[in-house]
Amino acid sequence: MKIGICAKVTADTDARLTPDSDGASFSFSGKTVVGPYDEFAVEEGVKTKEAHGGDLVVLSVGRSDDVLAQLRAGVLARGADKAVVVEDSALASADSLGIARALAKAIEREEINLVFCGKQSIDEESVQVPAMVADLLGWALVSRVIEFSVEGDEFTAMRSMDGGVRQVVKGALPAVITAERGLNTPRYAKLPAIMKAKKKPVDTVDLAALGLSADDVAPKLTVSAYGTPAERPKGRILEGDTGAVVAELVKLLREEAKVI
């Protein structure tokens, strides 16, 4: 079995985002991390490898020293054998579909037959890439998984549904599984493992190596501008007898707030 993990390195949840003056982009202050939901995917990939053997590969898009450092410390040090990073200038403006196309081709290139992803990233939170990867590969997709097991080419997964409902899904590999909170408890990487991770292979590929062109990942969706939310207006205290206050409140809700 060859197992893949799709992991995104992104700004931490407490990072401060600041739109540029023209709104065309934004910067942030704070550290970067492997996405929290991706960490559940990492742990499940490692557990599956420990139980069944095989190779474990982490795949990501975008390259910088910080990205590689996070992949080494957050994924390779926890048990992944190799990292594949898709780096190409054309991906800087790619939307979810462009990213999914690059990941799908990288998965095919590595001959992976089981992929774990976080259910969503914590920056854009589009919840699109795993489903697009599965569709591009022609594989089954099981999302929001909180229990998972595999025997041979057959898997069983339990999904967390809204309202506390649970759904058990059985199927055959290959498949894409997205991890929900509660699937497992991610382990901490120990210092010796972090040191060994520095020597694990990192394969950097561009779009051409995957048989893709810039046109293949050209965005179908673009962001016109970034901005901060409007400041919340100050609250208003209504005083007087109950009847007058209620009448004034109803009037304000109807004429100003326009909620009734």
Q: Which CATH first-tier class of the largest domain would you pick?
A: Alpha Beta
Number of helices: 6
How would you name the CATH homologous superfamily of the largest domain? Answer: HUPs
**What fraction strand?**
25-35%
Summarize the structure.
With 260 residues, the protein is an alpha/beta fold.
Could you name the key traits of this structure?
27% strand, 260 residues, 2 domains, nine-stranded mixed β-sheet, alpha/beta, two-stranded antiparallel sheet, 6 helices, Rossmann fold
Model description:
There is one protein chain. This protein has 260 residues and is an alpha/beta fold. The chain has two domains: 2-217, Rossmann fold; 233-260, no CATH class. It is 28% helix and 27% strand. It has six helices and 13 strands. The strands form three sheets. Strands 11-10-9-12-8-1-6-7-13 form a nine-stranded mixed beta sheet, sandwiched between helices. Strands 2-5 form a two-stranded antiparallel sheet. The chain has a two-stranded antiparallel sheet with strand order 3-4. Strand 10 and strand 11 (166-172) form a beta hairpin. The longest helix has 17 residues, at 36-52. It is globular and about 75 Å long.
